[in-house]
DNA sequence: TTTT
DNA sequence: TTTT
């Protein structure tokens, strides 16, 4: 069991890259507000990096922009890499398995009078044997 | 919503420290196996740092040791700090809100014939204004 | 571990009642859409009864109306009762521990130009020794 | 989002049935202890019906017996049916998407000296167009 | 730096 | 480095 559920706003537009073998990888950061328990003034947030693969990556690239609100279901993953100075460094990311778009419509899009619709995209749980491209 | 649920084994004994004001803080790492979906041979794990506060910290210190299996419910938190070389560095931890001890008894303890009992400790969600002591 | 996380729309206005001892209890039903995986046309939903206690109950009564979208975190509870015909019947409800209001503003309220704000209410986990009043 | 995570013990052996088209369906009930917050004596439990489909159903039938401890990840589903007396009745079940077997070995099986192994079975999220057979 |  |  390695389950993460987050609701937050995109802190920046998603970047979509492709692995050697052509798999799409989207990455972005979401700001998850905390402090609901504290005084409502001092709003703080955790900025959490999200990674999505394949079809889900493409859906993110096509539909999400900075500021949009999403619910992300995924798992925590710790990646390690080596710096130019031969130091081991660790990165923690959430590998998205499922993302729900919580805003009714894409930002900037024409506000249709239609009832707000949930959008949702599913991705199976991938453990690709390829590196996440930087 | 910032929710994490993990099941894993302690990769090391918990360390319990105290803040200036005397709050207990336990920290340890759990190994969460992945790859259940892949070939069963290549076992890999994510090593995820856990932080518990106050009463829950003390329960961890008194009851958990390396190797024990736990279910951790908490939230992801990203902390930043500055290195001696004035570089900003980020650490991601899970702040535990609730831990269930999934083994029947403490390691090494006398195996009582008693029915295995779930142990569980609850901690309220703390956002202390104090630093996590290193 | 008994954890439920749902996102859905209120199928009716909340009803707030009070126990003998004066504890507030709110109950309502949310419609949780499914079928995202299936053909997008055939929308179906699960109608899931939610119960909130005390301060959280009052927040629900004061802020939620039919149609509003919420994220509910809670636990599943099965209650049994006896019918007039002496038959045992079972009801499954979600006891809310935390509710996030996912719409920017209360329904019918004046649409302020202000940035949409997340509202959130917390309730501790109650296992009251009192019946849920019908 | 319709997510349920439960840890409990099987209250009875799973029953495996087959639909018209040959799909396996396992059903069983798990006892999820509560009251951790209350006095530790008065142990109470919620008895929650679980349904698993296809490959996951078969894994349950082959590996689970009364008393075993499991972690169930799934979604809540409300089914309605009509009694012989033409009354509409509702059943709430958890449709399992993933089950982790939390005991090292099958009950009654020879206690091997081998290191306890997590077993895990995955099922995709099915919304079959067939009835759950009684 | 790691668990079973 | 950040969102509302």
Q: What labels describe this entry?
A:
OB fold (Dihydrolipoamide Acetyltransferase, E2P); 7% helix; 134 residues; homotetramer; DNA-binding
Helices and strands in order:
The structure is a homotetramer of 134-residue chains.
Chain A: E1 2-10, E2 15-18, E3 24-33, E4 45-53, H1 54-63, E5 69-82, E6 88-101, E7 119-122
Parallel strand pairs in A: 4-6
Antiparallel strand pairs in A: 1-3, 1-5, 2-3, 3-4, 5-6, 6-7
The structure holds 2 DNA strands.
Motif (Important for interaction with partner proteins) (chains A, B, C, D): 129-134
GO molecular function (chains A, B, C, D): single-stranded DNA binding
Region (Disordered) (chains A, B, C, D): 105-134
Give a written overview of the molecule:
The structure is a homotetramer of 134-residue chains. With 134 residues, the first copy, chain A, is mainly beta. Chain A is 7% helix and 48% strand. Chain A has one domain (4-110): OB fold (Dihydrolipoamide Acetyltransferase, E2P). Chain A contains one helix and seven strands; from the N terminus they run E-E-E-E-H-E-E-E. In chain A, a hairpin with a 5-residue loop joins strand 2 and strand 3 (24-33). The relative contact order of chain A is 0.24. Mean pLDDT of chain A is 81; it is low at 106-127. Chain A binds chain B through residues 1-8, 32, 34-35, 37-38, 46-48, 71, 75-78, 92, 94, 125, 127, and chain B through 1-8, 32, 34-35, 37-38, 46-48, 71, 75-78, 92, 94, 125, 127. Strand 1 of chain C pairs antiparallel with strand 1 (2-10) of chain D. Chain A binds two DNA strands through residues 8-12, 29-33, 43, 45, 47, 66-69, 88.
